[in-house]
Write a structure and sequence with these properties.
The chain is mainly α. The chain folds into two domains: about 90 residues, no CATH class; about 70 residues, no CATH class. The protein has six helices and no strands. The longest helix is centred in the C-terminal third of the chain and has 75 residues.
Amino acid sequence: MQKDLIETLAHQLLEVDDGVLRPREKAVIERIAKRLAVSHNLNVEFADAATPGERLADQVAAVGGSWGFIIGFGVVIAAWALLNTVVLASDAFDPYPFIFLNLMLSLLAAIQAPVIMMSQNRQAARDRIAANHDYEVNLKAEIEIAALHEKLDRIRSEDLALLTERVEQAVGKV
C-alpha cells in the first residue's frame, strides 16, 4: 500500500516513475505520504553531533577571527616591544629583533591555522547538510504547491461542469 502511494505521488507530482527517484526525493515523497514535516533544526543536530575537539576548534576560530583578538594581539605585541626597548632597555629579556616574540608568534600561527581550518571544514560540512535540507524543503513545497494547483484545477473543472449543466437546463426550460 505504502509503495503504491509513493509510486502514485512520484508519478503525479514529479512526473517520474518510482525507480527514477533519487533517495532524497524518495524520502521527501515518503514524508509527504505520511503527512510528516521535512523541516527541522539542523543547528541543534549538528551541535549535538559535535565532538569536544570540534567544539574547541569552533571556539578557537571564533576568538582568533575576531576584531577583539586582533586588537588585543596588537596591544600585546606593542607592549612587548615597548617593554623590551624602552622600559628594560639594558636588561631586556628579548632584545630588538625580538627573536623570542617571533618564535611565540610562529608557534601560535602553527597551532591556530590548522584548528581554524578544522572549524572551516566543519562549517563547510554544515553548509552542505543545510543545502541538502533546503533542497528537500523546497522540493516538498514545490510538490505541495503542484498538488494544490491540481486540486484547484479539479474543483474548477467540477464547478465549470456544474455551471454548464445548469445553463443547459435553464436554456432547455426557455
